[in-house]
Amino acid sequence: MRKPGKVIITCAPTGSIHTPSMSPHLPVTPDEIAEAAIGAAEAGAAILHLHARDPIDGSPSPAAEHFMAFLPRIKQSTGAVINISTGGSATMSLDARLEGAKAARPELASLNMGPLIFDFSGAAARVQQWQHPWERPYVEGARDRIMYNDNGYIERIMREVGQDLGTRFEFECYDIGHLYTLAHFADRKLIEPPFLIQGVFGILGGIGADPRNLSHMVTIADSLFGEDYVFSAFAAGKNQMAFCTQSALLGGNVRVGLEDSLYIGAGELARSNADQVRKIRTILEELGRPVATPDEARAMLGLKGGDQVGF
């Protein structure tokens, strides 16, 4: 891993796991997503990891029109790096999952480095009343679905989004084996460093939210990539802030946002994405780790620049 420097804060405002019934503060309409993203950027997030939602019922959407309903406003209001998900939801086809990125031609796009069981069905037990008919079967059905990216899918994303559009990737690694898959594609020269590796912990089906796992992931990434990568990490749910802090202590970067946790503290819902950004920023600054600006993040990651996107 490169020597510790300024910390990149990524914020993921909405995602595709949580549903409107789980928190009144989850942004789902274009205006809400735009306002949440802009607020997070103003609070210190250099990168905004974005999913789209159907504005009618808040369900996850891969549609380019739903992305384009908020992307221009975010770009006009902030200098933050826009990161478009190619993971979408386990209910979407690969063609659907690529629709937003192909239309937006972003500086960054997420890329899941392998298939995994992605079980968030346990969240259903915390919901007292469902607002929309799609929510309960979507959440409870997560135990029967696989988030699917085989090596053929991964290669296609690297070629069609990376090589064709000049977009770089946030490589989402949910287990140690995903690092070796990434190394395979690096060896084949389908991708070039620096690699932004996002360690994802605490998803049922992926690597657990144990600090020893985080240390191990960094150790293996060091052995595979040397100084050719930039590390970031987060944990889903209650371990969000603790894992971000651990990543910073190891010299890495951090990700927060209501995609990953709806809470700001034990039993207390976060009222905004900006609240989570401000909390982790305070922790980082107390640790003596200054926060990177969007342009500093661009330089660290070798991005093409905000003037080269499609929105």
From TrEMBL:
<protein>
    <submittedName>
        <fullName>3-keto-5-aminohexanoate cleavage protein</fullName>
    </submittedName>
</protein>
<dbReference type="InterPro" id="IPR008567">
    <property type="entry name" value="BKACE"/>
</dbReference>
<keyword id="KW-0862">Zinc</keyword>
<keyword id="KW-0479">Metal-binding</keyword>
<dbReference type="InterPro" id="IPR013785">
    <property type="entry name" value="Aldolase_TIM"/>
</dbReference>
<dbReference type="Pfam" id="PF05853">
    <property type="entry name" value="BKACE"/>
</dbReference>
<keyword id="KW-0808">Transferase</keyword>
